[in-house]
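Anyone up for a design puzzle?
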């Protein structure tokens, strides 16, 4: 009987791993969501063929992403409410960056500076929310174009408007683990693309249910493995697949590297 495999992708983990893998070659800018010319169907099919048995086929790839974005400080778009204005102002004044700008100003000057900072943050919020909606459009485009790839959304990712930095997404890992368990009667092999040790309990339950569990890691051109946190997941899974640098580079739509020959998956 043919083996059926499902691939479970932690979306943010994959995105950051790709940025790290190609950082030294400047192939993927940190602001770019995903490679434009990636062949996702071929990539996931290759992963199944390389990781599982010869007669195993990919049933579906479940790609888990955040459902919303939460910007800090909160409430910048509802500043008509006086109480909300006071709360946002207090939040701004606690930041070292803002305190430095307010130092030495009188009350009127401080109020004016706070107003200008708030206006700049509102613009930043509109920009990052627009970028997040572009990510959703890219995801929808992949789902339409590629075969048997389904995006599943949960939780939110935070973004600090002052520090211009993303926080960790919330609830995505829980949704991925729950769905791996909920869907286990439909597949024989679960392939996890993530280095998050939070998936260790779910992987153990799947193994106890008679399923094969495989973890995927990526190789930099230097030979370093990413994501680094995959070590704990590797211990509990049945086996691991290392995606060679040039293999990943080819499936992501980049020209082959001239620096070293490709290596076989382990």
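Challenge accepted. My sequence:
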């Amino acid at each position: 009987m043919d083996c059926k495999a499902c691939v479970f992708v932690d979306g943010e983990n994959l995105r950051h791993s790709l940025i790290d893998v190609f950082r030294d070659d400047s192939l993927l800018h940190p602001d770019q969501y995903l490679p434009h010319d990636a062949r996702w169907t071929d990539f996931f099919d290759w992963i199944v063929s390389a990781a599982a048995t010869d007669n195993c086929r990919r049933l579906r790839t479940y790609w888990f992403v955040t459902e919303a974005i939460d910007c800090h400080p909160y409430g910048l778009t509802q500043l008509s409410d006086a109480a909300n204005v006071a709360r946002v102002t207090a939040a701004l004044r606690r930041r070292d960056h803002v305190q430095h700008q307010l130092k030495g100003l009188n009350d009127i000057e401080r109020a004016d500076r706070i107003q200008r900072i708030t206006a700049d943050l509102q613009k930043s919020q509109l920009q990052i929310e627009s970028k997040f909606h572009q990510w959703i459009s890219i995801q929808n485009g992949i789902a339409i174009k590629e075969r048997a790839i389904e995006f599943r959304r949960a939780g939110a990712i935070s973004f600090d408007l002052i520090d211009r930095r993303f926080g960790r997404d919330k609830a995505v890992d829980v949704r991925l683990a729950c769905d791996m368990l909920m869907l286990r009667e439909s597949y024989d092999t679960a392939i996890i693309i993530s280095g998050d040790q939070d998936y260790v309990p779910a992987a153990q339950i799947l193994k106890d249910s008679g399923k094969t569990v495989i973890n995927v890691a990526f190789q930099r051109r230097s030979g370093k493995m990413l994501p680094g946190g995959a070590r704990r997941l590797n211990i509990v899974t049945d086996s691991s697949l290392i995606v060679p640098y040039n293999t990943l580079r080819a499936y992501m739509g980049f020209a082959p590297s001239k620096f070293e020959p490709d290596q076989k998956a382990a």
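A detail worth pointing out: Residues 144 and 150 are 9 Å apart (CA to CA).
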